[in-house]
UniProtKB/TrEMBL annotation:
Organism: Meristemomyces frigidus
Protein name: Serine aminopeptidase S33 domain-containing protein
Domain Serine aminopeptidase S33, first and last residues per copy: 80-207
Gene3D superfamilies associated with the record: alpha/beta hydrolase
Pfam family for this entry, one: Hydrolase_4
Superkingdom field: Eukaryota
Length: 355
């Protein structure tokens, strides 16, 4: 949490003076969403004098700010829209190092837009699945229509809960006529869906909550029937891939997970990869069958983990399983920087499994 820290003073979190502009975005539901626009360091250095001359703090009209103009008016500007995880605010935990890792991918061009969902931080309201999706769609719409950044210059990054929001957003836009496709989507520490998550979650990685009840399917199913927000990421991810494959649209997805993540077990990511891969395939592959195929093309990175890519003529789904990174520390690591660079820079050069 960020108790005792003023989010309107981002310098408290280690940013340069006026490198971050706090402002608000109106959600489609009428809620005011608290947001930060973060400039990359190289771009900041080039315009330092102009930025220092502006008044600090929360701004009522961001379109008057130099930082916003640098985003809107540069035809080469790139943007990462950031969907954070559960609890806290835009400034909590490892989120600020995460923003710095993201902007490092293009120090002179890559901006970050992050925000608090309704009920988080300084954004009023009560969080629900549909409410958070509506908020995320509103932020993306702001980036496209107000900031004027086309989707081919936008990557959507997400972590934990944010990965479920990301999956909902990507599928929503893929179903539009015509479809709206972004440069790529990065999901860090994702989960299959909430029922699966509660069956695998343990407090501090040691004390299971509902896991032992899976031995009693009727009881477990009864308890999970009370879950209101299910966040079926696996289905939305598969729908997104299937739609793009059917219509010949290019797409890129990267899944990142640490083996030492004790909040969301890393085993969720191979399951999501399996659902995504099957969405490209006419013949359904069993989980173990796909695992054998993956073993043939897996790149072993030693202590850094391993990488597998499922590559078709239209899209790439990349699975990176890190040996280390925990649930949050991973966000500030260079693997995040490199993931964004790959999205904007094209193929990774790794041997990929062709369907």
């Amino acid at each position: 949490m960020t108790w005792g820290k003023d989010l309107d003073v981002p310098e408290v979190f280690g940013f340069l003076h006026n490198q971050v502009t706090p402002f608000s975005i109106r959600s489609s539901s009428g809620q005011s969403l608290y947001a930060w626009h973060i400039l990359p360091t190289g771009l900041y250095q080039k315009h330092e004098q102009g930025l220092l001359a502006e008044a600090p703090g929360h701004v009522a009209d961001i379109i008057t700010r130099l930082g916003f103009k640098l985003l809107r008016d540069d035809p080469e500007a790139r943007l990462v829209i950031h969907f954070h995880g559960a609890a806290g605010t835009v400034g909590s935990g490892y989120r600020c190092p995460n923003y710095r890792a993201l902007t490092a991918a293009e120090p002179n061009k890559l901006h970050v837009l992050t925000f608090d969902y309704r009920g988080f931080g300084r954004s009023p309201g009560w969080p629900t699945e549909q409410g958070l999706i509506a908020d995320a769609l509103s932020v993306v719409q702001w980036a496209r229509k107000v900031a004027g950044v086309p989707p081919e210059r936008i990557v959507i990054y997400s972590q934990s809960l944010g990965t479920a929001v990301n999956a909902a957003v990507m599928d929503h836009y893929a179903q539009q006529h015509p479809p709206v496709l972004f440069k790529g989507h990065i999901l860090t520490a994702p989960f299959v869906d909430v029922p699966t998550l509660v069956s695998t979650y343990s407090v501090a990685g040691t004390i299971p909550i509902l896991g032992p009840l899976t031995a009693f399917p009727a009881l477990f199913d009864h308890l999970t029937s009370f879950i209101k927000d299910t966040w079926f990421t696996k289905d939305r991810l598969a729908s997104y891939v299937c739609t793009n494959e059917a219509y010949g649209n290019a797409y890129r997805i990267t899944l990142l997970h640490g083996e030492d993540d004790y909040d969301i077990p890393w085993t969720h990511t191979p399951i999501l990869f399996w659902h995504a891969a099957n969405a490209t395939h006419k013949d359904i592959l069993g989980f173990q069958d796909l695992a054998k195929v993956k073993d043939q093309s897996r790149v072993d990175l030693g202590a850094a983990g391993s990488v597998v890519e499922w590559k078709t003529g239209k899209g790439v789904v990349r699975e990176e399983i890190l040996k280390f990174g925990l649930h949050d520390v991973i966000m500030g690591n260079p693997v995040v920087t490199l993931a964004v660079m790959r999205m904007f820079g094209g193929d990774s050069g790794l041997v990929a499994q062709a369907v």
